[in-house]
Amino acid sequence: MTPVSQASPLRADCIADSAGGLTFDVRAPGATEAAHLVLRHREGPEEVTLPLAPATKGHLRAALPSSVVLLEGHWDAYASVTEEDPDHRVASGAMDVHPQASRVPYETRQGNLSVECRLPRSPSGAPGTARSATMDPHPPARSALPSR
Predict the structure, then answer these.
(1) CA-CA 20 to 30 A from 131: which of 57, 74, 77, 93?
(2) How far is residue 64's CA from residue 27's CA, in Å, rounded to a whole number?
(3) How far apart are CA 10 and CA 111, in angstroms?
(4) Radius of gyration, alpha carbons of the chain
(5) Of 42, 19, 27, which Cα lies nearest the Cα of 114?
(6) Distance separating the N- and C-terminal Cα atoms of the chain
(7) CA-based nearest residue to 36, from 83, 79, 88
């Protein structure tokens, strides 16, 4: 096992699909079974820890399925690849983002990887206004005649 150099930051490529799933490929030679990626919400204490598993030579992969609920807002990516290594910010790599993605990875001004989570859009295009299947889309008609 080759130790990870502190001089070179961990870099992650990211794929965002239309269903809201995210895949992170982290370039990290010398990683151990303790490797993980953490998404931390900027405005609160919420965080999601994802295990990093071997993918290809020198790369680890973490997947965030669409079934995992993330609060709306910005989430910063951190990673640790050894047990002794504290979490470090992850540098942004290549990104493949589906146009309909509700979780959008992006590069910050400092070159780090972050994810913006948006409310899913309804068919009308308004955020968070999707109607329930049991809701009547047509309100009751009102009579134009004055009541007696």
Answers:
(1) 74
(2) 17
(3) 11
(4) 21
(5) 42
(6) 88
(7) 79
Question: How far apart are the C-alpha atoms of 42 and 39, rounded to whole Å?
Answer: 9
Query: Which token pair is 129?
Result: 């206004």
User: Which structure tokens are listed for 48?
Assistant: 């999601």
CA 51/CA 141 separation, integer angstroms: 55
The 3-state secondary structure of the chain reads CCCCCCCCCCEEEEEECCCCCEEEEEECCCCCCCCEEEEEECCCCCEEEEECEECCCCEEEEEECCCCCCCCEEEEEEEECCCCCCCEECEEEEEEECCCCCEEEEECCCCEEEEEECCCECCCCCECCCCCCCCCCCCCCCCCCCCC
Write out pLDDT tens, residues 28-80. 876 677 899 999 999 989 999 999 998 888 889 999 999 999 999 999 999 98
41, 71 Cβ separation under 8 angstroms: yes
